[in-house]
Amino acid sequence: MTRERGRPRSFDPELALDQALQVFWKHGFQGASLQELTLAMGLSKPSLYAAFGDKEGLYLKALERYVRLLVERHAACLEEPQVRCAVERFLRSLAAMLVDPGLPGGCFIINGTADCGGAYTPEAVEQALRLALQGCEGLLLTRLQRALDEGQLPKATEVDSLAALFGSLIAGLAVLAKSGTPAAKLDRVIAAAMVLWPSNPG
Fold first, then answer.
1. Nearest 5°: phi and psi at 85?
2. Which of 112, 104, 110, 125 is nearest to 26 (CA)?
3. Cα–Cα distance between 64 and 110 in angstroms, integer?
4. Is the CB of residue 20 less than 8 Å from the CB of residue 40?
């Protein structure tokens, strides 16, 4: 049997996708060239197209993988029984990832939104980024609503506004991390934000 021309014998789709994710994470959709992608993935252009489609398709798959890993890695923090502890753990877990020296820096989603509105960014990519951007806020809103129902938050708490506040905080932390802000400062920002937590009933 003749193997597909141009594709390495040991081709691993998940590993190749992880390498593409790293390139897109660092450079965004527009900034990542096909040459950089194929070099990082260890594939020829025909093999890349055969396995993942065009650059747009590859980016969307990389974004899906990032979101899936993000949920697996951080969303479990929100299962902490006490909601305040749960949210703080979630924020600190994300912050640790944002400054992880083994990663490109910042947030794949926040970094990617810099391309939104550009002439060369496909609409499908922009829509996927917008949906992904709402993901953390959605997770927070679900957890806060549950806490409200359980009586862990004052009845007057506007959980949608609180979720939006922490969602905005996450975006800000990502920008700070991308610019080289140290982890200690991100921790201080989170601590300051938690001071705004609504007082418990009673």
1. -65, -40
2. 104
3. 14
4. yes
Phi–psi pair at 6, nearest 5 degrees = 90, -10
CA angle 170, 175, 176 (to 5 degrees): 95
In the chain, which ranges are continuous DSSP H helix? 13-31, 34-41, 45-52, 55-74, 83-98, 108-113, 123-150, 159-178, 183-194
Q: Are the beta carbons of 60 and 127 closer than 8 angstroms?
A: no
- Closest among 198, 136, 200 to 169, alpha carbons compared: 136
Render pLDDT for 68-102 as a digit per residue (tens, 0 to 9). Answer: 887 778 999 999 999 999 999 999 999 999 999 98
Ranges in the chain, pLDDT < 50: 1-4, 6, 8-9, 201-202
Q: What's residue 189's pLDDT?
A: 97
Please check whether residue 78 is in contact with residue 152, taking contact to mean a CB–CB distance below 8 angstroms: no
- Token duo for residue 119: 């002439």
106, 98 Cβ separation under 8 angstroms: yes
